[in-house]
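(Protein data)
===
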Amino acid sequence: MIDSEDELLISTSNRKHSGRPKNEVWQYFNTIPADSTNGKKDLHSGAACKFCKQKWSRGKTSEMIAHLVLQCSKPPPPEVRTLYLEILNNGSFDDNDDDNSSKRSKPYKQSKITNHVERLTIRIRLTVTDNKQRRCSRVFTKFFVTCEVPLWIVENPFFIDYSKELCPGFQVPKRTILSTTMINVETATVIAKMKKKLSNETNLTLGIVLFDFLIN
C-alpha cells in the first residue's frame, strides 16, 4: 500500500521539467538540488565540480566553463579544456540555458496597433547585432582592465549615459558580469592566441631572466 508521502514523491519524480535543457558543461559537474529556505523556493540548481569538488549555490554556464578552463585546481583532461577554451573564447554560451523553470506569463492586455508600431520603431533604432554587442563588450573589457579603471564605474549613471550616447543599442554590463564573465572571456582569448602562436613555432626554449639591478 502506498501512503500519501510516497504518492507525493512519485508525483514529483514523474513531473516533466519545462524550459530549455541544461548546457553540456553540466556533465562535468554534480547537480546540487535547489534550496528552499524561508518559504521561498530557488528553482536554480547548485553545482559541484567533479574534478576539484568546488561548489556553487547556483550553477551558471559561464562560471562553470571559466572554472574548467582557468580556475580548476585539478584540471580536467586536455581535450575538455581545449573544447571549453574555444567555447569561452568565442562567447558561444548562454546562461539562460540553466533555467529549466517555466516563467509565469503576465496577464495579456490588448493594446492599440499604434503602440506596437511605436515600440517596434524604437526597438529597431536601439538594437545592435549580437556580433556588435560582442565586439563592443570586448573593447569595453580591455578598456577597464588595461587602464585599471575601477569596476564600480560601470554602474555609475553618468558613465551609462555616456556609453548609451556613443552606442544607443549597447547593453552596458553589470559590475558582476564585467568582473567575471567578460574578463574570463578576454583571458580565454589571450590564452587561445598564445596557444595558436606557439603551435606554429619550433625548437622553443623556456628560460627565466633575472634582472638583479632592478632588485638592488
